[in-house]
Specification:
single chain, about 100 residues, alpha+beta, Immunoglobulin-like, 2 domains, 2 helices, 2 strands, about 25% helix, transmembrane helix, PhoD_N, membrane, transmembrane, Phospholipase D N-terminal domain-containing protein
């Protein structure tokens, strides 16, 4: 009884269950088979600034960092003001403020 309560608590607090891990693993392992039939647009046109939600970073250490953003010229719209076609995004990381 205590053991199942602990498992439920871990799952409730954001732990990864075996079932969820397998679902993630299956999804990630299928990525190479998606193919290159959908090419990303390299020069899209936006009606307004597409990074309206900003850029977030976290989980940094001396060798790496996680960067997150969402292209959303209209962030309150259900689709964020974006079509479903892929968009190529380039990153420039610098030490200064410019």
């Amino acid at each position: 009884m205590i053991r199942s309560s602990i498992r439920d608590a871990i799952r409730h607090e954001g732990g990864v269950s075996r079932r969820l891990f397998l679902a993630y693993a299956t999804t990630l392992s299928s990525i190479p088979f998606i193919g290159c039939s959908t090419l990303a647009r390299h020069n899209p046109r936006f009606s307004s600034y597409p990074f309206s939600l900003g850029i977030a970073s976290g989980d940094s250490d001396s060798n790496s960092v996680v960067l997150w953003t969402r292209l959303a010229p209209k962030p309150l719209d259900p689709d964020g003001g974006m079509s479903t076609e892929p968009i190529a995004v380039k990153w420039q990381v610098a030490e200064d403020e410019t």
